[in-house]
Amino acid sequence: MKKFVLKRFLQMALVWILVSMFAFAIIYFAPGDPLYMYMTPGATGHKLTEAELQAMRESLGLTGNVFQQYAAWAQKMMHGNWGISIQTKENVLSLILGKLPCTMGLMGASMVLSLIIAIPLGLIAGTHKNKLSDNIISALTYVGVSMPAFWLGIMLVIIFSMQLQWLPSSGMRSIGVNTTWDLVKHAIMPSIVLSMNNMAVFVRYIRSNTITQMEEEYVLTAVSKGISKKGIMYGQVLKNCMLPVITVVGSRFGTLVTGSFIVESVFNWPGLGTLAMSAINNRDYPVVMGITMFSCTILLLGNFLADILYGFADPRIKIGKE
Amino acid sequence: MSHLLEVKDLKVSYHSYAGEVQSVRGVNFTVDTGESVAIVGESGCGKSVTAKTIMGLIQTPPGEIKKGSQILFEGKNLLDMNEKEWQAYRGSDCAIVFQDALAALNPTLTIGRQITEKIMIHTDMNKEDAMKEAERLLTLVGIPNPAKRLKQYPHEFSGGMRQRAMIAIALACQPKLLIADEPTTALDVTIQADIIDLLKDLQKEFQMAVIMITHDLGIVADIATKIVVMYAGKVVETGSNYDVFYNPRHPYTQALLRAVPRLDVEEDQELESIEGTPPNMIAPPAGCAFCTRCKHCMKICQKMEPPTYEFEDGHTAQCWLYHEYAQK
Ligand SMILES: Nc1ncnc2c1ncn2[C@@H]1O[C@H](COP(=O)(O)OP(=O)(O)OP(=O)(O)O)[C@@H](O)[C@H]1O
Ligand SMILES: [Mg+2]
Predict the structure, then answer these.
(1) Using CA atoms, how far apart are residues B56 and B54, in angstroms rounded to an integer?
(2) Terminus of chain A with fewer CB atoms < 10 Å: N or C?
(3) For residue A320, what pLDDT is reported?
């Protein structure tokens, strides 16, 4: 167990470092300038001189080539210094942690939602292969994977906010209202949109898994013992179908992160995604880097936890002993 | 005289994209209480399909059990039973042991659970009693340390031990008929002999009827009282162990026996393989299915199916050579 964890942590550290390099390079070479807002006379009507801009660049660590800048960033990171936002001058880590609960809540809700719906649908489709119910469910999953999140979000807003006026179209809370119900009402549509893609993937995965499991020979043995169809489904097949789903859930955290960026923008959800979007638009490099690396960490930990959990759940894998 | 099991004119097909695969094309044989019957024949001749049909394991579709087929178990036609009756029959009257125990056991359930679940369906034992019974069964099939083994998963067993566990599951609830479909093919030779000895002992001890399906004529000679030889979905010869080995009637059986060395002959033997391949089961020939490979093939063999001829003591063969007009 110790050995396994150690090995995985080393792997994760390597991935983390590579991701940080790529992300840094992409941001560095992307067009745009974080000081753009100071170069045009905006609302302030104040335009900085070339010398002032240069001084500012130096103070923000924006001078030198990509290697020097990366080295500077990495050095700070090693001391736990995530940097300061160019836009708001706030500490990047506290900015992220401040937005985290909103995003985590949304991701958690959508993950739970997609599993609650996908598990029964996948099992029904798998056990009724090529029958009507399977065809309907499979067709729906195609719709689910191919529907763009922003489009679905806008459609829901048009129907449920503008036409029916049942649900609020944006934000997380109504001003002046502080009830759980209000929060839930705001969260319904974003969670649905964010869960759609994963739901479709889970249904397809559970369906095909159920079909392969039902064709395994141990099912024949179970039948030959005189166990009923239902007994075989719940007592034998279900567990074997669901075990690998743990790993798939772990691997879907990536979609969840990118999905939340889009969903949060559409619904103006005050989470990490909204923060990331505004940081990208304003070339707020430290914040973009911070969010990228934070998401990367969540992703790696998600996969790691899924593997550990799988190891405990499946008797054939022995990471628990040794 | 009534038989424990009587298979009458059993025909089973599989429907595939290429057409209807006629896996079993009219099989007849009987099994008596306590008797041990071996079914032999080349790969693909329909042995496993026959066994699965007796257990009610054929999925329809793609499978189809043709009308007019009958499988009488203690006089009752199994093919008329509803699902509830099948469930009661499976496991308690008849049990099956498959070739590959690793695939046939559920990888994520303990051996104990896989034995007790069967016991608890067919008896009203509680979990504790069922566990004790499972422990007794593991001891019976020669698995050391049964209490500990019950808590283990199939992958923690060696191949031979796994097959023993499989046999223990089959033995639970004392079935009257045990079908073993190539139970030793996946095992090492030395372990094969142990498993066969075990089956022989158990059969004697419980007066259990056994259908042993195998390619291995050595096993057949060792365990069977009666032999059923199958070719291309049909039974071509049946008879007692002695009759079939010493006086084979069908050219296919004769060829099979020439393909294995005899232990009772001292001098050098020439082994012959059977030339050619079995017929396509999607379009089986009109006449005898063996005629293209048969040394004694006559005109009639290609045109009409041979009837079944009976010799001394229930020894039968499906072959035109035994027609009264055939040249001897
Ligand atoms: N599920 C299935 N779908 C389609 N065809 C099948 C199926 N099961 C068996 N068959 C066909 O039925 C025929 C008989 O198969 P069977 O498994 O009974 O052979 P066997 O005598 O047991 O051979 P072996 O010694 O290799 O086990 C084969 O031609 C096979 O292709
Ligand atoms: Mg077979």
Answers:
(1) 6
(2) C
(3) 45
- Ligand 1 atom having least distance to the Cα of B16: 4
| Buried-state track B272-300, b at ≥16 Cβ within 10 A, e below 16 | eebeeebbebeebbebbbbbbbbeebbeb
Question: Can you give the residue ranges of every domain in chain B?
Answer: 5-34+55-80+214-263+271-322
Question: By the 8 A CB rule, do B32 and B43 touch?
Answer: no
The DSSP H or E segment spanning B94 is: strand B94-97
State the CB neighbour count (10 A cutoff) for residue A56: 15
In angstroms, rounded to a whole number, what is the distance separating the alpha carbons of residues A215 and A224?
14
Contact list, B103 vs chain A (CB under 8 Å): 216-218
Question: Residue B144: is the preceding peptide bond cis (ω within 30°)?
Answer: no
The CATH label, of 3.40.190.10, 3.40.50.300, 2.30.42.10, 3.40.50.150, for the domain at B5-34+55-80+214-263+271-322 is 3.40.50.300
**Integer Rg of chain A from CA:** 24
Q: Which two tokens stand for residue B39?
A: 């079914």
Condensed to tens digits (0 to 9), the pLDDT of residues A246-293 reads: 888 888 888 888 888 889 988 888 888 888 888 888 888 888 889 999
Query: Helix, strand or coil for residue A131?
Result: coil
* Per-residue pLDDT, A42: 59
Q: Is the C-beta atom of B44 inside 6 A of ligand 1?
A: yes
Residues A140-163: b if buried by 16+ CB within 10 A, e if exposed = ebeebeeeebeebbeebbeebbee
pLDDT in tens, A194-206: 999 999 999 999 9
| B28 neighbors B7 (Cβ within 8 angstroms) | yes
Q: Does A243 touch chain B (CB under 8 A)?
A: yes
Per-residue pLDDT reduced to its tens digit, A28-50:
887 777 766 666 655 556 666 77
* CB of B60 closer than 6 angstroms to any ligand 1 atom: no
Question: Does ipTM top 0.90?
Answer: no
Sequence-separated (6 or more) residues with CB below 8 Å from residue A291: A96, A272, A275, A276, A279
